[in-house]
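A common beginner's mistake is to predict each chain separately and then try to dock the pieces by hand. The better habit, illustrated here, is to supply every component at once so that their relative placement is modeled jointly.
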Amino acid sequence: MQKNISAAQPAQAIDKKQHIKRMIPKIVLYVILIFFAVLWLIPFLFALSTSFAYNNNLYNGEPVIGIYHKEYNWMWHPMTFVNYLDLFRKYNVIGGFVNSILYIIAPLFVGVFTSAMAAYGFARLRFPGRIPMFFTLLSTILLPGVITMVPSYIMYSVGYGWSNTPLPLIIPGMFGSAMTMFLIRQYFLGFPKELEEAAQLDGMGWWGIFIRIALPLSMPVLITQLILSFNGMYNDYLGPLLYVGTTPELRTLQLILKSIPTIGVTPYPLMMAGAIVALIPTFILYGLAQKFFTEGIVLTGIKE
Amino acid sequence: MQTTETLQAQAGQESVLALAPRRHHKMNRRKRNEYIMGWVFIAPLTIGFLLFTAVPLVLAIYYSFTSYDLFSPPQWIGLANFAEIFAGDTDWYMRSLLNALIYTIGVPLGAAISLVIAAMLCNISRGSTVLRMIFYIPTICGSVAITFIWQWMFASHYGILWEFLESLGFQLTNAFGFLDEERFMSSMIFMGLWAGVGGSLLLFYSSLQNISHDLYDAAALDGANGFQKFWHITMPGVSPVLFYVLLTGIVGSFQAFTQFQVMTGDVISEYSVMPVWWIYRYITGEWGYRYGLASAMGLLLGLILIVISAVQFIASKYWVKY
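With all components supplied together, the output reads:
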Protein backbone atom coordinates (compact mmCIF):
# COMPACT_ATOMS: atom_id res chain seq x y z
CA MET A 1 0.00 0.00 0.00
CA GLN A 2 2.80 2.34 0.84
CA LYS A 3 4.52 1.55 -2.44
CA ASN A 4 1.49 2.77 -4.32
CA ILE A 5 2.05 6.34 -3.29
CA SER A 6 3.05 8.00 -6.51
CA ALA A 7 3.91 11.46 -7.66
CA ALA A 8 0.35 11.80 -8.87
CA GLN A 9 -0.90 11.91 -5.32
CA PRO A 10 -1.69 15.28 -3.80
CA ALA A 11 1.30 17.04 -2.21
CA GLN A 12 -0.52 17.17 1.10
CA ALA A 13 -0.54 13.40 1.46
CA ILE A 14 3.20 13.19 0.84
CA ASP A 15 3.77 15.88 3.43
CA LYS A 16 1.67 13.98 5.89
CA LYS A 17 3.58 10.79 5.28
CA GLN A 18 6.91 12.54 5.70
CA HIS A 19 5.57 14.17 8.82
CA ILE A 20 4.69 10.79 10.28
CA LYS A 21 8.06 9.43 9.24
CA ARG A 22 9.75 12.27 11.05
CA MET A 23 7.57 11.69 14.07
CA ILE A 24 8.61 8.06 14.52
CA PRO A 25 12.03 8.70 16.13
CA LYS A 26 10.36 11.24 18.44
CA ILE A 27 7.78 8.70 19.52
CA VAL A 28 10.44 6.05 20.08
CA LEU A 29 12.38 8.58 22.15
CA TYR A 30 9.33 9.34 24.27
CA VAL A 31 8.61 5.64 24.80
CA ILE A 32 12.17 4.98 25.99
CA LEU A 33 12.24 8.04 28.25
CA ILE A 34 8.85 7.33 29.81
CA PHE A 35 9.90 3.72 30.35
CA PHE A 36 12.99 4.90 32.24
CA ALA A 37 11.00 7.50 34.17
CA VAL A 38 8.56 4.80 35.30
CA LEU A 39 11.51 2.62 36.35
CA TRP A 40 12.78 5.54 38.40
CA LEU A 41 9.42 6.03 40.09
CA ILE A 42 8.70 2.36 40.88
CA PRO A 43 10.77 2.22 44.10
CA PHE A 44 8.83 5.18 45.50
CA LEU A 45 5.46 3.74 44.46
CA PHE A 46 6.44 0.36 45.86
CA ALA A 47 7.46 1.97 49.16
CA LEU A 48 4.29 4.07 49.34
CA SER A 49 2.10 1.09 48.60
CA THR A 50 3.90 -1.11 51.12
CA SER A 51 3.66 1.54 53.82
CA PHE A 52 -0.12 0.97 53.81
CA ALA A 53 0.14 -2.83 53.88
CA TYR A 54 -0.67 -5.06 56.81
CA ASN A 55 2.38 -6.37 58.62
CA ASN A 56 1.90 -9.91 59.93
CA ASN A 57 -1.73 -9.19 60.71
CA LEU A 58 -5.02 -10.96 60.27
CA TYR A 59 -7.35 -9.54 57.69
CA ASN A 60 -10.92 -10.82 57.35
CA GLY A 61 -9.98 -13.77 59.53
CA GLU A 62 -7.28 -14.81 57.09
CA PRO A 63 -3.56 -14.45 57.68
CA VAL A 64 -2.48 -11.68 55.36
CA ILE A 65 1.19 -11.00 55.76
CA GLY A 66 1.02 -7.60 54.23
CA ILE A 67 1.38 -7.75 50.51
CA TYR A 68 3.02 -11.13 50.76
CA HIS A 69 -0.30 -12.86 50.20
CA LYS A 70 -0.35 -14.38 46.75
CA GLU A 71 -3.92 -13.21 46.15
CA TYR A 72 -2.72 -9.63 46.01
CA ASN A 73 0.04 -7.89 44.17
CA TRP A 74 2.37 -5.09 45.12
CA MET A 75 -0.06 -2.36 44.21
CA TRP A 76 -3.39 -3.85 45.22
CA HIS A 77 -3.77 -5.22 48.69
CA PRO A 78 -5.74 -4.48 51.85
CA MET A 79 -4.72 -1.04 53.09
CA THR A 80 -4.21 0.24 56.63
CA PHE A 81 -2.77 3.23 58.45
CA VAL A 82 -1.45 1.03 61.24
CA ASN A 83 2.21 1.35 60.17
CA TYR A 84 2.13 5.13 60.38
CA LEU A 85 0.38 4.94 63.76
CA ASP A 86 2.96 2.39 64.97
CA LEU A 87 5.77 4.54 63.70
CA PHE A 88 4.65 7.57 65.70
CA ARG A 89 3.66 5.48 68.73
CA LYS A 90 6.79 3.33 69.08
CA TYR A 91 9.48 5.60 67.66
CA ASN A 92 10.23 9.15 68.69
CA VAL A 93 9.75 10.49 65.18
CA ILE A 94 8.54 13.91 66.28
CA GLY A 95 11.34 14.30 68.83
CA GLY A 96 13.84 13.26 66.17
CA PHE A 97 12.44 15.78 63.73
CA VAL A 98 12.57 18.55 66.36
CA ASN A 99 16.19 17.63 67.13
CA SER A 100 17.07 17.67 63.44
CA ILE A 101 15.58 21.15 63.04
CA LEU A 102 17.25 22.42 66.24
CA TYR A 103 20.65 21.23 65.05
CA ILE A 104 20.14 22.67 61.58
CA ILE A 105 18.85 26.22 62.20
CA ALA A 106 22.06 27.85 63.50
CA PRO A 107 24.56 26.34 61.04
CA LEU A 108 22.05 26.88 58.22
CA PHE A 109 21.41 30.60 58.57
CA VAL A 110 24.64 31.67 60.25
CA GLY A 111 26.68 29.36 58.02
CA VAL A 112 25.21 30.66 54.76
CA PHE A 113 25.65 34.24 56.04
CA THR A 114 29.33 33.78 56.95
CA SER A 115 29.90 31.97 53.64
CA ALA A 116 28.32 34.92 51.83
CA MET A 117 30.55 37.31 53.80
CA ALA A 118 33.68 35.48 52.68
CA ALA A 119 32.28 35.22 49.16
CA TYR A 120 31.79 38.99 49.09
CA GLY A 121 35.27 39.64 50.45
CA PHE A 122 36.91 37.42 47.86
CA ALA A 123 34.77 38.62 44.97
CA ARG A 124 34.65 42.38 45.48
CA LEU A 125 37.55 43.52 47.68
CA ARG A 126 41.27 43.67 46.94
CA PHE A 127 43.52 42.97 49.91
CA PRO A 128 46.89 41.31 50.52
CA GLY A 129 46.72 37.57 51.07
CA ARG A 130 43.42 37.32 49.23
CA ILE A 131 44.53 34.93 46.51
CA PRO A 132 46.57 32.43 48.59
CA MET A 133 43.78 32.38 51.18
CA PHE A 134 41.15 31.79 48.50
CA PHE A 135 43.01 28.85 47.02
CA THR A 136 43.72 27.42 50.47
CA LEU A 137 40.02 27.46 51.31
CA LEU A 138 39.09 26.16 47.87
CA SER A 139 41.43 23.21 48.24
CA THR A 140 39.53 22.08 51.35
CA ILE A 141 36.61 21.23 49.05
CA LEU A 142 38.76 18.55 47.44
CA LEU A 143 40.16 17.33 50.76
CA PRO A 144 38.65 13.88 51.39
CA GLY A 145 36.63 14.01 54.61
CA VAL A 146 37.91 10.58 55.68
CA ILE A 147 41.32 12.09 56.54
CA THR A 148 39.93 14.30 59.31
CA MET A 149 37.21 11.89 60.46
CA VAL A 150 39.08 10.32 63.39
CA PRO A 151 41.09 13.38 64.54
CA SER A 152 37.94 15.55 64.37
CA TYR A 153 36.18 13.09 66.60
CA ILE A 154 39.06 13.15 69.09
CA MET A 155 39.27 16.94 68.90
CA TYR A 156 35.56 17.47 69.56
CA SER A 157 35.24 14.90 72.32
CA VAL A 158 38.62 15.24 74.08
CA GLY A 159 39.88 18.66 72.98
CA TYR A 160 36.66 20.67 73.16
CA GLY A 161 34.80 18.39 75.59
CA TRP A 162 31.76 18.11 73.32
CA SER A 163 31.17 14.37 73.61
CA ASN A 164 27.51 13.35 73.61
CA THR A 165 26.37 16.84 72.74
CA PRO A 166 25.12 18.06 69.36
CA LEU A 167 27.72 20.87 69.38
CA PRO A 168 30.04 19.20 66.80
CA LEU A 169 27.05 19.21 64.43
CA ILE A 170 26.20 22.86 65.13
CA ILE A 171 29.30 24.99 65.84
CA PRO A 172 31.61 24.17 62.88
CA GLY A 173 28.81 24.76 60.38
CA MET A 174 28.27 28.28 61.73
CA PHE A 175 31.67 29.30 60.34
CA GLY A 176 30.47 28.65 56.80
CA SER A 177 31.64 26.23 54.14
CA ALA A 178 34.14 26.72 51.33
CA MET A 179 31.80 25.15 48.76
CA THR A 180 28.93 27.51 49.64
CA MET A 181 31.35 30.43 49.61
CA PHE A 182 32.62 29.44 46.17
CA LEU A 183 29.14 29.18 44.65
CA ILE A 184 27.93 32.49 46.11
CA ARG A 185 31.16 34.15 44.99
CA GLN A 186 30.41 33.14 41.39
CA TYR A 187 27.24 35.18 41.70
CA PHE A 188 28.91 38.23 43.29
CA LEU A 189 31.54 38.26 40.52
CA GLY A 190 28.78 39.06 38.05
CA PHE A 191 27.90 42.39 39.66
CA PRO A 192 29.09 45.50 37.77
CA LYS A 193 31.88 47.57 39.31
CA GLU A 194 29.67 50.67 39.28
CA LEU A 195 27.56 49.07 42.00
CA GLU A 196 30.10 49.75 44.75
CA GLU A 197 31.39 52.98 43.21
CA ALA A 198 27.94 54.56 43.29
CA ALA A 199 27.26 53.33 46.81
CA GLN A 200 30.64 54.60 48.04
CA LEU A 201 29.93 58.03 46.59
CA ASP A 202 26.82 58.02 48.76
CA GLY A 203 29.07 57.42 51.74
CA MET A 204 28.25 53.77 52.20
CA GLY A 205 30.93 51.51 53.67
CA TRP A 206 31.80 47.99 52.54
CA TRP A 207 29.67 46.41 55.23
CA GLY A 208 26.67 48.56 54.32
CA ILE A 209 27.04 47.66 50.64
CA PHE A 210 27.22 43.98 51.52
CA ILE A 211 24.16 43.99 53.79
CA ARG A 212 21.95 46.45 51.96
CA ILE A 213 22.86 45.92 48.31
CA ALA A 214 24.80 42.70 47.64
CA LEU A 215 22.72 40.34 49.81
CA PRO A 216 19.26 41.50 48.65
CA LEU A 217 20.45 41.27 45.04
CA SER A 218 21.57 37.66 45.43
CA MET A 219 18.42 36.14 46.92
CA PRO A 220 18.11 33.39 44.26
CA VAL A 221 21.58 32.01 44.96
CA LEU A 222 21.20 32.45 48.74
CA ILE A 223 17.90 30.57 48.79
CA THR A 224 19.42 27.82 46.64
CA GLN A 225 22.29 27.49 49.09
CA LEU A 226 19.90 27.49 52.06
CA ILE A 227 17.92 24.64 50.52
CA LEU A 228 21.01 22.62 49.60
CA SER A 229 22.52 23.14 53.06
CA PHE A 230 19.28 22.29 54.84
CA ASN A 231 18.81 19.11 52.86
CA GLY A 232 22.43 18.09 53.28
CA MET A 233 22.30 18.48 57.07
CA TYR A 234 18.83 16.97 57.33
CA ASN A 235 19.95 13.85 55.45
CA ASP A 236 23.31 13.60 57.22
CA TYR A 237 23.74 10.28 58.94
CA LEU A 238 27.40 9.73 59.83
CA GLY A 239 27.78 13.02 61.75
CA PRO A 240 24.80 12.54 64.09
CA LEU A 241 25.65 8.84 64.41
CA LEU A 242 29.14 9.67 65.70
CA TYR A 243 28.24 12.50 68.05
CA VAL A 244 24.71 11.90 69.34
CA GLY A 245 24.08 8.30 68.26
CA THR A 246 24.56 6.83 71.73
CA THR A 247 22.19 9.28 73.46
CA PRO A 248 18.60 8.35 72.52
CA GLU A 249 17.00 11.68 73.42
CA LEU A 250 19.49 13.59 71.23
CA ARG A 251 18.93 11.50 68.09
CA THR A 252 18.00 13.11 64.79
CA LEU A 253 15.20 11.86 62.55
CA GLN A 254 17.64 9.86 60.39
CA LEU A 255 18.94 8.04 63.47
CA ILE A 256 15.38 7.38 64.72
CA LEU A 257 14.58 5.95 61.29
CA LYS A 258 17.65 3.73 61.42
CA SER A 259 16.66 2.52 64.90
CA ILE A 260 13.77 0.52 63.39
CA PRO A 261 15.08 -3.03 63.83
CA THR A 262 15.72 -4.71 60.48
CA ILE A 263 17.13 -8.01 61.63
CA GLY A 264 15.00 -11.13 61.97
CA VAL A 265 11.43 -10.71 60.72
CA THR A 266 11.90 -7.47 58.84
CA PRO A 267 8.96 -5.06 59.34
CA TYR A 268 9.05 -3.76 55.78
CA PRO A 269 5.70 -1.91 55.90
CA LEU A 270 6.85 -0.06 59.03
CA MET A 271 10.23 0.73 57.43
CA MET A 272 8.51 2.06 54.33
CA ALA A 273 6.22 4.26 56.44
CA GLY A 274 9.36 5.59 58.15
CA ALA A 275 11.10 6.22 54.84
CA ILE A 276 8.07 8.07 53.46
CA VAL A 277 7.76 10.23 56.60
CA ALA A 278 11.48 11.06 56.50
CA LEU A 279 11.24 12.07 52.83
CA ILE A 280 8.24 14.39 53.29
CA PRO A 281 10.21 17.46 54.55
CA THR A 282 12.61 17.19 51.60
CA PHE A 283 9.76 16.95 49.10
CA ILE A 284 7.89 19.89 50.65
CA LEU A 285 11.04 22.03 50.61
CA TYR A 286 11.95 21.28 47.01
CA GLY A 287 8.33 21.58 45.92
CA LEU A 288 8.02 25.06 47.43
CA ALA A 289 11.33 26.32 46.09
CA GLN A 290 11.42 24.37 42.86
CA LYS A 291 11.70 27.45 40.68
CA PHE A 292 14.51 28.98 42.72
CA PHE A 293 16.28 25.72 42.68
CA THR A 294 16.16 24.93 38.97
CA GLU A 295 17.34 28.51 38.28
CA GLY A 296 19.98 28.30 40.95
CA ILE A 297 21.58 25.05 39.92
CA VAL A 298 22.03 26.42 36.42
CA LEU A 299 23.39 29.71 37.78
CA THR A 300 25.79 28.14 40.21
CA GLY A 301 26.53 25.08 38.12
CA ILE A 302 30.09 24.15 37.37
CA LYS A 303 29.81 25.65 33.89
CA GLU A 304 31.26 28.99 35.02
CA MET B 1 51.92 29.36 42.40
CA GLN B 2 52.82 31.13 39.19
CA THR B 3 49.25 32.18 38.54
CA THR B 4 48.99 33.47 42.08
CA GLU B 5 52.01 35.71 41.57
CA THR B 6 50.87 37.04 38.23
CA LEU B 7 47.41 37.77 39.58
CA GLN B 8 48.90 39.62 42.50
CA ALA B 9 51.18 41.54 40.19
CA GLN B 10 48.22 42.48 38.04
CA ALA B 11 46.25 43.63 41.04
CA GLY B 12 49.24 45.72 42.13
CA GLN B 13 49.55 47.35 38.73
CA GLU B 14 45.91 48.26 38.65
CA SER B 15 46.07 50.01 41.98
CA VAL B 16 49.25 51.82 41.00
CA LEU B 17 47.53 53.14 37.89
CA ALA B 18 44.53 54.16 39.93
CA LEU B 19 46.61 56.27 42.28
CA ALA B 20 46.36 59.89 41.32
CA PRO B 21 49.36 61.78 42.76
CA ARG B 22 47.34 64.50 44.45
CA ARG B 23 44.92 62.26 46.30
CA HIS B 24 47.64 59.96 47.55
CA HIS B 25 46.79 60.28 51.22
CA LYS B 26 43.05 59.76 50.81
CA MET B 27 43.48 56.78 48.49
CA ASN B 28 45.80 55.15 50.97
CA ARG B 29 43.26 55.45 53.72
CA ARG B 30 40.56 54.02 51.54
CA LYS B 31 42.86 51.22 50.48
CA ARG B 32 43.79 50.42 54.06
CA ASN B 33 40.10 50.29 54.91
CA GLU B 34 39.63 47.84 52.03
CA TYR B 35 42.49 45.69 53.34
CA ILE B 36 40.99 45.54 56.81
CA MET B 37 37.43 44.96 55.65
CA GLY B 38 38.61 42.24 53.27
CA TRP B 39 40.00 40.28 56.16
CA VAL B 40 36.92 41.04 58.27
CA PHE B 41 34.72 39.53 55.55
CA ILE B 42 36.74 36.35 55.26
CA ALA B 43 37.48 36.10 59.00
CA PRO B 44 34.70 33.66 60.07
CA LEU B 45 35.37 31.19 57.26
CA THR B 46 39.14 31.45 57.82
CA ILE B 47 38.81 30.89 61.58
CA GLY B 48 36.46 27.96 60.92
CA PHE B 49 38.99 26.53 58.49
CA LEU B 50 41.81 26.83 61.05
CA LEU B 51 39.82 25.36 63.95
CA PHE B 52 37.86 22.62 62.21
CA THR B 53 39.94 21.66 59.16
CA ALA B 54 43.57 22.70 59.61
CA VAL B 55 43.87 21.46 63.21
CA PRO B 56 42.33 18.00 62.50
CA LEU B 57 44.48 17.75 59.37
CA VAL B 58 47.67 18.31 61.35
CA LEU B 59 46.41 15.94 64.06
CA ALA B 60 45.60 13.33 61.40
CA ILE B 61 49.19 13.30 60.24
CA TYR B 62 50.52 13.27 63.82
CA TYR B 63 48.18 10.55 65.15
CA SER B 64 48.97 8.34 62.14
CA PHE B 65 52.47 7.87 63.52
CA THR B 66 51.36 7.23 67.08
CA SER B 67 49.68 4.66 69.20
CA TYR B 68 46.75 6.41 70.86
CA ASP B 69 43.78 5.09 72.83
CA LEU B 70 42.24 8.31 74.27
CA PHE B 71 43.16 7.33 77.85
CA SER B 72 46.91 7.82 77.72
CA PRO B 73 48.79 10.40 75.63
CA PRO B 74 49.78 9.46 72.05
CA GLN B 75 53.05 7.56 71.76
CA TRP B 76 55.25 7.96 68.69
CA ILE B 77 55.63 4.62 66.93
CA GLY B 78 56.85 5.76 63.52
CA LEU B 79 55.51 3.84 60.56
CA ALA B 80 54.23 0.91 62.59
CA ASN B 81 50.57 1.72 61.87
CA PHE B 82 51.17 1.76 58.13
CA ALA B 83 53.25 -1.39 58.36
CA GLU B 84 50.36 -3.08 60.14
CA ILE B 85 47.88 -1.93 57.49
CA PHE B 86 50.04 -3.11 54.58
CA ALA B 87 50.85 -6.40 56.30
CA GLY B 88 47.13 -7.07 56.20
CA ASP B 89 46.97 -7.65 59.94
CA THR B 90 44.07 -5.27 60.29
CA ASP B 91 41.67 -7.89 58.98
CA TRP B 92 39.47 -6.33 56.34
CA TYR B 93 40.82 -2.83 55.82
CA MET B 94 42.68 -3.77 52.64
CA ARG B 95 39.62 -5.73 51.57
CA SER B 96 37.49 -2.64 52.16
CA LEU B 97 39.71 -0.67 49.77
CA LEU B 98 39.18 -3.37 47.15
CA ASN B 99 35.41 -3.27 47.74
CA ALA B 100 35.48 0.52 47.36
CA LEU B 101 37.36 0.13 44.09
CA ILE B 102 34.72 -2.32 42.84
CA TYR B 103 31.96 0.04 43.96
CA THR B 104 33.60 2.80 41.89
CA ILE B 105 32.65 0.93 38.68
CA GLY B 106 29.28 2.61 39.19
CA VAL B 107 30.78 6.06 38.56
CA PRO B 108 31.66 5.77 34.84
CA LEU B 109 28.56 3.63 34.38
CA GLY B 110 26.38 6.31 35.93
CA ALA B 111 28.07 9.02 33.86
CA ALA B 112 27.36 7.07 30.65
CA ILE B 113 23.71 6.44 31.55
CA SER B 114 23.07 10.04 32.57
CA LEU B 115 24.76 11.35 29.42
CA VAL B 116 22.61 9.09 27.21
CA ILE B 117 19.38 10.07 29.01
CA ALA B 118 20.38 13.75 28.94
CA ALA B 119 21.03 13.54 25.20
CA MET B 120 17.60 11.96 24.69
CA LEU B 121 15.99 14.66 26.82
CA CYS B 122 17.62 17.32 24.65
CA ASN B 123 15.84 15.94 21.61
CA ILE B 124 12.32 16.28 22.97
CA SER B 125 10.51 19.51 23.59
CA ARG B 126 7.48 18.73 25.70
CA GLY B 127 7.80 17.07 29.10
CA SER B 128 11.56 17.31 29.42
CA THR B 129 11.28 19.35 32.65
CA VAL B 130 8.99 16.80 34.29
CA LEU B 131 11.21 13.91 33.22
CA ARG B 132 14.32 15.66 34.55
CA MET B 133 12.53 16.20 37.86
CA ILE B 134 11.66 12.51 38.08
CA PHE B 135 15.26 11.44 37.54
CA TYR B 136 16.41 14.07 40.02
CA ILE B 137 14.12 13.08 42.91
CA PRO B 138 16.30 10.24 44.32
CA THR B 139 19.36 12.51 44.55
CA ILE B 140 17.70 14.78 47.10
CA CYS B 141 16.45 11.92 49.27
CA GLY B 142 18.24 10.84 52.42
CA SER B 143 20.44 7.76 52.15
CA VAL B 144 18.75 6.01 55.08
CA ALA B 145 15.29 6.24 53.51
CA ILE B 146 16.62 5.22 50.09
CA THR B 147 18.45 2.24 51.51
CA PHE B 148 15.30 1.15 53.39
CA ILE B 149 13.35 1.28 50.15
CA TRP B 150 15.97 -0.75 48.29
CA GLN B 151 16.29 -3.24 51.11
CA TRP B 152 12.65 -3.95 50.40
CA MET B 153 13.16 -3.93 46.61
CA PHE B 154 15.94 -6.54 47.04
CA ALA B 155 14.05 -8.61 49.61
CA SER B 156 13.87 -12.34 48.93
CA HIS B 157 10.51 -13.91 48.00
CA TYR B 158 8.42 -10.76 48.46
CA GLY B 159 10.55 -7.96 47.04
CA ILE B 160 9.53 -6.52 43.71
CA LEU B 161 12.73 -7.55 41.93
CA TRP B 162 12.33 -11.13 43.11
CA GLU B 163 8.73 -11.18 41.90
CA PHE B 164 9.79 -9.64 38.61
CA LEU B 165 12.43 -12.33 38.02
CA GLU B 166 9.92 -15.04 38.95
CA SER B 167 7.35 -13.62 36.58
CA LEU B 168 9.99 -13.87 33.84
CA GLY B 169 10.14 -17.60 34.59
CA PHE B 170 13.27 -17.78 36.72
CA GLN B 171 13.10 -20.45 39.41
CA LEU B 172 14.65 -18.70 42.37
CA THR B 173 15.53 -20.76 45.40
CA ASN B 174 16.33 -19.87 48.98
CA ALA B 175 20.00 -19.97 48.03
CA PHE B 176 19.47 -16.87 45.90
CA GLY B 177 19.45 -13.38 47.32
CA PHE B 178 20.18 -9.97 45.84
CA LEU B 179 22.26 -9.14 48.89
CA ASP B 180 24.22 -12.43 48.86
CA GLU B 181 27.95 -12.46 48.87
CA GLU B 182 28.33 -12.69 45.08
CA ARG B 183 25.65 -10.17 44.23
CA PHE B 184 25.95 -7.66 47.08
CA MET B 185 28.27 -5.20 45.36
CA SER B 186 26.37 -5.30 42.04
CA SER B 187 23.15 -4.64 43.92
CA MET B 188 24.71 -1.68 45.71
CA ILE B 189 26.00 -0.31 42.39
CA PHE B 190 22.53 -0.79 40.90
CA MET B 191 20.97 1.16 43.76
CA GLY B 192 23.70 3.79 43.49
CA LEU B 193 22.92 4.29 39.80
CA TRP B 194 19.25 4.83 40.53
CA ALA B 195 20.07 7.22 43.37
CA GLY B 196 22.83 9.19 41.69
CA VAL B 197 22.15 9.52 37.97
CA GLY B 198 19.76 12.48 38.35
CA GLY B 199 22.38 14.97 39.52
CA SER B 200 24.88 14.39 36.73
CA LEU B 201 21.99 14.19 34.28
CA LEU B 202 21.02 17.80 35.11
CA LEU B 203 24.61 18.96 34.61
CA PHE B 204 24.97 17.07 31.32
CA TYR B 205 21.62 18.42 30.15
CA SER B 206 22.58 22.05 30.71
CA SER B 207 25.98 21.61 29.07
CA LEU B 208 24.38 19.86 26.06
CA GLN B 209 21.96 22.79 25.75
CA ASN B 210 24.97 25.10 25.51
CA ILE B 211 26.43 23.32 22.47
CA SER B 212 25.61 25.37 19.40
CA HIS B 213 23.34 23.71 16.81
CA ASP B 214 25.41 25.32 14.07
CA LEU B 215 28.25 22.93 14.88
CA TYR B 216 26.01 19.92 14.21
CA ASP B 217 24.62 21.49 11.04
CA ALA B 218 28.12 22.22 9.77
CA ALA B 219 29.22 18.67 10.57
CA ALA B 220 26.17 17.29 8.76
CA LEU B 221 27.10 19.34 5.68
CA ASP B 222 30.58 17.84 5.83
CA GLY B 223 28.97 14.40 5.86
CA ALA B 224 29.77 13.43 9.43
CA ASN B 225 27.87 10.43 10.80
CA GLY B 226 26.21 10.19 14.18
CA PHE B 227 29.21 8.73 15.92
CA GLN B 228 31.59 11.33 14.49
CA LYS B 229 29.24 14.12 15.58
CA PHE B 230 29.13 12.65 19.07
CA TRP B 231 32.89 12.20 19.32
CA HIS B 232 33.98 15.52 17.84
CA ILE B 233 31.21 17.88 18.97
CA THR B 234 29.25 16.42 21.89
CA MET B 235 32.16 14.94 23.83
CA PRO B 236 34.31 18.09 23.88
CA GLY B 237 31.19 20.08 24.80
CA VAL B 238 30.34 17.97 27.81
CA SER B 239 33.94 17.15 28.80
CA PRO B 240 34.11 19.68 31.70
CA VAL B 241 30.96 18.17 33.23
CA LEU B 242 32.19 14.63 32.60
CA PHE B 243 35.45 15.50 34.34
CA TYR B 244 33.58 16.95 37.32
CA VAL B 245 31.20 13.97 37.55
CA LEU B 246 34.06 11.45 37.45
CA LEU B 247 36.22 13.42 39.91
CA THR B 248 33.55 13.93 42.57
CA GLY B 249 31.94 10.54 41.92
CA ILE B 250 35.11 8.55 42.52
CA VAL B 251 36.00 10.47 45.69
CA GLY B 252 32.40 10.08 46.90
CA SER B 253 32.02 6.38 46.19
CA PHE B 254 35.32 5.53 47.88
CA GLN B 255 33.95 7.19 51.01
CA ALA B 256 30.45 5.68 50.82
CA PHE B 257 29.22 4.63 54.22
CA THR B 258 25.52 5.13 54.99
CA GLN B 259 24.10 2.84 52.28
CA PHE B 260 26.38 -0.02 53.30
CA GLN B 261 25.88 0.31 57.04
CA VAL B 262 22.09 0.61 56.74
CA MET B 263 21.67 -2.06 54.06
CA THR B 264 23.45 -4.69 56.14
CA GLY B 265 21.98 -3.57 59.47
CA ASP B 266 25.52 -2.70 60.62
CA VAL B 267 26.58 -6.34 60.25
CA ILE B 268 30.05 -6.07 58.73
CA SER B 269 31.34 -8.82 56.43
CA GLU B 270 34.19 -9.34 54.07
CA TYR B 271 32.19 -8.71 50.91
CA SER B 272 30.35 -5.62 52.19
CA VAL B 273 32.96 -3.79 54.27
CA MET B 274 33.84 -0.26 53.15
CA PRO B 275 36.79 1.87 54.37
CA VAL B 276 34.81 4.57 56.22
CA TRP B 277 32.69 1.89 57.87
CA TRP B 278 35.79 0.06 59.01
CA ILE B 279 37.30 3.26 60.45
CA TYR B 280 33.97 4.13 62.09
CA ARG B 281 34.19 0.85 64.00
CA TYR B 282 37.45 2.03 65.58
CA ILE B 283 35.88 5.36 66.58
CA THR B 284 33.00 3.67 68.37
CA GLY B 285 35.58 1.46 70.04
CA GLU B 286 34.04 -1.83 68.96
CA TRP B 287 37.49 -3.10 68.02
CA GLY B 288 39.44 -1.32 70.71
CA TYR B 289 40.22 2.35 70.84
CA ARG B 290 43.07 2.26 68.34
CA TYR B 291 42.80 5.88 67.24
CA GLY B 292 46.35 6.08 65.91
CA LEU B 293 45.77 3.13 63.60
CA ALA B 294 42.35 4.46 62.56
CA SER B 295 43.90 7.87 61.75
CA ALA B 296 46.51 6.14 59.61
CA MET B 297 43.74 4.28 57.75
CA GLY B 298 41.91 7.55 57.10
CA LEU B 299 45.08 9.30 56.00
CA LEU B 300 46.00 6.43 53.68
CA LEU B 301 42.62 6.44 51.94
CA GLY B 302 42.68 10.25 51.76
CA LEU B 303 46.13 10.22 50.14
CA ILE B 304 45.00 7.58 47.64
CA LEU B 305 42.04 9.79 46.72
CA ILE B 306 44.23 12.88 46.44
CA VAL B 307 46.59 10.99 44.09
CA ILE B 308 43.64 9.72 42.00
CA SER B 309 42.26 13.28 41.81
CA ALA B 310 45.67 14.70 40.90
CA VAL B 311 46.08 12.15 38.11
CA GLN B 312 42.62 13.06 36.85
CA PHE B 313 43.52 16.76 36.91
CA ILE B 314 46.71 16.13 34.94
CA ALA B 315 44.95 13.86 32.46
CA SER B 316 42.16 16.41 32.07
CA LYS B 317 44.57 18.75 30.27
CA TYR B 318 44.55 16.31 27.37
CA TRP B 319 40.87 15.58 27.04
CA VAL B 320 38.82 18.29 28.74
CA LYS B 321 37.99 21.23 26.45
CA TYR B 322 36.93 24.34 28.33
